[in-house]
Amino acid sequence: MLPQEGKKAPSFTAKDETGKTHRLSDYKGKAVVLYFYPTDDTPGCTKEACSFRDQMGPLEKSGATVLGVSRQNAVSHQKFKEKYGLNFPLLVDEGPLSESYGTWVEKNMYGRKYMGMQRSTFLIAPDQTIAKVWEKVKPEGHAAEVVSALKAWGATAKVR
Question: Residue 79 and residue 115: Cα distance in Å, rounded?
Fold first, then answer.
């Protein structure tokens, strides 16, 4: 089950493509866009990653840090990041991260059931609560949608 908006974000510890450790607690006081994607260097995942890359200016202007997450290993993430000039960390999920966020789910293709990553994005507020959840994301235009939500959320967050 996906974490709900307004609830505490599940804590995590994961290494990125360079071996650097990232913890949710490292980002306390900052907004985090944590997006889960199925596989490095596939059409939909590439489109989504490149759109986050291309939206990095507005994302950073909104005060957000982007972290991509999939179950590929560090070498796969390094190649993907280098090939497309991605400008944010790609976290290696060995299972606990996607399981705690409810994105490792049973899928069904042509009658065959298997476990896989559900493309989902979480906007985590500076107080480490879930501010917004996008479930079963479509890659086309998603990063721009996140930027719009950040702008709207940021305006209301400043009022509080």
Answer: 24
